[in-house]
Amino acid sequence: MDMLLELNDFVVSRGRKFSLSPVNIRFNDPNIVGLFGHNGAGKTTLLKALSGLLPVQSGESHIKDMSYPVFLPDTPFIYKFLKVGSVPGVLAKYFNDFDADLGESIIGDLSLDVKKRVGELSKGMEEQLNLGMTLARRSSVYLFDEPLAAVDPVTRDHMLDLIKRYKPNDALLIISTHLISGLESLFDECLVLHNGKILLRISVSDSISNNQSLESRIKEAMINA
């Protein structure tokens, strides 16, 4: 398999405190990866550093085809004054990797009123719009920071469906989340961070075959850290 993402001695620090110290990992398969850990474990730091939003003190990151990772922050990023129908055209001007035709198709699938402003949407529909427009960008690596944290169960199911439907088959998607229960069918593997280090990396299929739930494996690792 071709390398999709590789980190070698990847170190991020803030002042004298090491937020990541160091991280070595390689992803070859186009999987969906759950990123878990206590608050302050380094999840958001890792995603932001990979996205170029935080400086890296040392080490290297390599992404397939030298593409840029696509980052979805934990708060909506689309301007609320924009009309929904104009969003794909605006994002196409900001991001060279944005597929405007795909963006319009996703808005159609979400049955959004293109004449409404983004700020007039319900919270759940705004979250889905932000997620959908992120998936309309084309990359080898996608990084999502807590996209499911503040949504109701129905909206969460719609967002999971969006991810499964529009994630490119040949791409890696890493999702930071505190949710475990109900997500076993989404993830192919999981990482647990603790104090900026990788505490555990497990395959979901291996966990299931060993008759141990994904939730119990992750909780056990976090409790015993």
UniProtKB/TrEMBL annotation:
Gene3D superfamilies: P-loop containing nucleotide triphosphate hydrolases
SMART domains hit by this protein: AAA
Organism domain of life: Bacteria
UniProt keyword ATP-binding present: yes
Pfam families: ABC_tran (PF00005)
Keyword Amino-acid biosynthesis: no
GO molecular function, one term: ATP hydrolysis activity
Keywords per UniProt: ATP-binding, Nucleotide-binding
TM annotation in the entry: none
Stretches assigned to the ABC transporter domain: 5-220
Stored InterPro entries: AAA+_ATPase, ABC_transporter-like_ATP-bd, P-loop_NTPase
Protein name as annotated: ABC transporter ATP-binding protein
